[in-house]
Structure formats: structure tokens, C-alpha cells
Design goal:
mainly alpha, 86% helix
Length: 51
């Protein structure tokens, strides 16, 4: 029964093709999050060095 459900779900997700643009948008979002976290880490390190 679980297998049947997962097949139905996978068919639903595969009905919309993934485009290069979709992948690029995901990459951009990931890169922006990385940049945000890196900047936050840099600020934290600068604060620690001041102490």
C-alpha cells in the first residue's frame, strides 16, 4: 500500500518538468543564503576580536 501511495505522489510531482531556470533560481536562493550566513559569521568574528 505504501508503494502505491508513493508512486501516485511521484507521478504528481513529475507532471511539471523542472527547467534550467528553476535550477538556477534555486542556486541563486542558496547562494544568497550562504552569503547572508557568511556575512553574519564575519560580523560575529569581528565582535569576538574586539573583546
Amino acid at each position: 500500500m505504501d508503494v502505491e501511495i508513493s508512486k501516485k505522489n511521484s507521478n504528481r510531482f513529475m507532471s511539471t518538468p523542472v527547467t534550467i531556470d528553476d535550477i538556477y533560481k534555486l542556486f541563486q536562493a542558496s547562494q544568497q543564503e550562504y552569503d547572508r550566513r557568511a556575512a553574519e559569521a564575519d560580523r560575529s568574528m569581528a565582535e569576538l576580536k574586539k573583546q
